[in-house]
Amino acid sequence: MKLEDIRREYTLAGLSREQLVASPIDQFDAWFKQAVDAKLSADPTAMSLATVDSEGQPSQRIVLLKNFDDKGFVFYTNLESHKAKDIAGNNKVSLHFAWTPLERQVIIYGEAEKLSVAEATRYFISRPRESQIAAWTSHQSQKIGSRKLLEQAFDQMKRKFSEGEIPLPSFWGGYRVKPVKIEFWQGRGSRLHDRFIYIKQADGSWALERLQP
């Protein structure tokens, strides 16, 4: 099989300006609910987070969306991880949702700001206990000799936190991506896809433009 022979037409739906609402957050909410209802995957909140390091090298990884509203899109992570170090040097990031069974994509461009300790704590204590222990165990993005060493460290943390509440690690928290542009992409036949982008204005309103495919 040749890679160039793998192709399909996008024929499920179109997207017009009249179908879009004034707020891109409300529009995202509608599409997100449809993606969840369609049961596209076990992780409907999965999104690709793109960052750029101090040498200008982009990198991407999947993180999970944990909240969104007019203020932005929230995810949590180790604050000493590769992604956190990138954000510390350049907080301009991009989020990408690929809902391919619906022939849709959403791309969010914005700036990441660190959440308060109070916000991070509220979410941390809502996590399953073993996920809390895992946050204490992993020095994310750091090298380790074997899986066995990681499991041993996890067991040590389980013994350490065998009773009582587990505190928030000082190196763990979250980010809110404050959007400045949000693009909605709907696949169409003959690769003449529908693309619309919302651009935030100085007064806080959103301008809407159609893009060529």
UniProtKB/TrEMBL annotation:
Enzyme nomenclature, EC number: 1.4.3.5
Role played: Catalyzes the oxidation of either pyridoxine 5'-phosphate (PNP) or pyridoxamine 5'-phosphate (PMP) into pyridoxal 5'-phosphate (PLP).
Protein's recorded name: Pyridoxine/pyridoxamine 5'-phosphate oxidase
Lineage per the UniProt record: Bacteria, Pseudomonadati, Pseudomonadota, Gammaproteobacteria, Oceanospirillales
Gene3D superfamilies: Electron Transport, Fmn-binding Protein, Chain A
GO molecular function: FMN binding; pyridoxamine phosphate oxidase activity
Subunit structure: Homodimer.
Cofactor(s) required, per the database record: FMN
Cofactor notes: Binds 1 FMN per subunit.
Family: Belongs to the pyridoxamine 5'-phosphate oxidase family.
Residues involved in FMN binding: R61, I62, V63, L64, L65, K66, Y76, T77, K83, Q105, Q140, S141, W185, R195
